[in-house]
């Protein structure tokens, strides 16, 4: 019984009833259920009165030829005809179609396992496959590229089953069970019908090791899925390798090697180090270390050609899927792997691919700053892959690569915090610190990541915890014989800001002044980090009773940031917003409104209208306050109400930013978290 393929089966039956002059190709990953769907159509065609239905295996040239001869004999071929077909003479293909024309209209010819296209001859309508309105030719193949099949073909791509149909398939095969467990197992197996069939049958076998789908799912979670996903036939003889998911994927790789693409195998091993089912930027792979792994040429054009031929080969056999995301233009092309393809390949991956996977991410992120909004789309794409590397690669990494992986995680944590995803950044930091236990507690990479975790904690609203974390971290750094000065200054800056956020702006001002002077000496006046400390110091100056001095410094910082970073950099907008917040606190509401409307407009243009407003980047919150200060309560309520709805959607009802907006909107101010900025 088919599950989840009703739409495709209707399409096939329609094509069989009314052939349109093109042959159909069911294409997709090995194990996705192409042959099962073709068999359902074959059974339907054979059951019709007067209908003819044939099945030919194209797994090898020999099975294909045998199938042609068998069908030809049913159509009245003479011994001379069958000899020509076996010999593959120049006339053989025309002879085959002459014989097929004798069949009654409405016939079905299934050509199964047509993964080696050379077996089929020319695909331009002159070979073994030709368009016909007398019957339907249906081909099953792992090759899904419409370009290869030509204009006379219609390619129907089959993907994994949705969770509901996949769960029903498991329950049917296992003879019943818990639906929730079936859904969990279906999700774990990525909806791949072959894996579902193996799993469901394994539970149903006599004397099975698993008495339920839940037990099987638990076994997968605690062991090697590729080892469990085999057909335990008992006395039934050895299993067909093509019925074992891991093995059938390897057969696809072997065919690519035989076809002149041996570097497709190390490329798939590399890709399997990243997160499955998620886009992997192809640009991530365009680096020297990946090229060395693939054994590519040294010239740039040759390197690109070498990489893309391997990608194309993997895609044509449906081992990877091409994607073109629209995420703010980040990486125009991506590749993704089905979870079982990823897991099966990763189980055969040791050493170099894991190291190269780390090096590729390092190379991609190296030129980018975490406070640059142009970095954020890339960071969002790469973060789950770094998380996967943290989960599965540490055993294959030396200390150098472990440290590099942790440094990359720290950069992604910082980028997420800057972009407004402070909660997600904190989760990534905690996850990373728990996964790299081989590194000592006082390793610089660990300490840097702890600093970013503390910063994310504060930006998420808990500055008391952040202050304690940073103070402990500073003591650790200062206990070392020769701590790196820039790392220490970063912690001192963060700690001074946390001190201010917890209410002691006098101490914060003193700390930021010292950090600013040190950064100026080490980095220069116009370095972005120096400018960042100056901007924070201006706020501390305002909060300690010197608004005129602070305003003047803000205007200098804005001018310097514009000169160094550009007019639309997020740090330029941050300085403008901080200036406007000072105006609000000093009841200069009209001036604040003018600046904040400019910030809101530029922020929408830079980040998009859907980008969330957070605790420390909330211009509409402050605009609402500026309007309230002018007595324009209806306008303020409209802005704050819309902001509140978005914050509830993004952060939930209890997030400090959400609570502050709700308090401002309802007039129940109490302690307003955002006022502490």
Could you characterize the architecture of this molecule?
- The protein contains 31 helices and 8 strands.
- It has 677 residues and is mostly helical.
- The strands form 2 sheets. The protein has a 5-stranded parallel β-sheet. Strands 6-8-7 form a 3-stranded antiparallel β-sheet.
- α23 (485-501) runs antiparallel to α24 (505-523).
- The two termini are 62 Å apart.
- The mean pLDDT is 89.
- InterPro entries: AAA_16 (IPR041664), NLR-like (IPR053137), P-loop_NTPase (IPR027417), TPR-like_helical_dom_sf (IPR011990).
Give a topology summary.
Blueprint: H1 6-17, E1 23-27, H2 34-47, E2 53-57, H3 61-74, H4 79-87, H5 92-100, E3 107-112, E4 135-141, H6 146-149, E5 153-157, H7 163-174, H8 179-188, H9 193-204, H10 213-222, H11 225-228, H12 245-258, H13 264-271, E6 280-281, H14 288-294, H15 300-316, E7 321-323, E8 334-336, H16 339-346, H17 352-365, H18 376-392, H19 399-419, H20 422-435, H21 444-459, H22 463-478, H23 485-501, H24 505-523, H25 528-543, H26 547-565, H27 570-585, H28 589-607, H29 619-629, H30 633-651, H31 656-666
Parallel strand pairs: 1-4, 1-5, 2-3, 3-4
Antiparallel strand pairs: 6-8, 7-8
Helix pairs in contact: 1-2, 3-4, 4-5, 7-8, 7-9, 8-10, 12-16, 13-15, 13-17, 17-18, 17-19, 18-19, 18-20, 19-20, 19-21, 20-21, 21-22, 21-23, 22-23, 23-24, 24-25, 25-26, 25-27, 26-27, 27-28, 27-29, 28-29, 29-30, 30-31
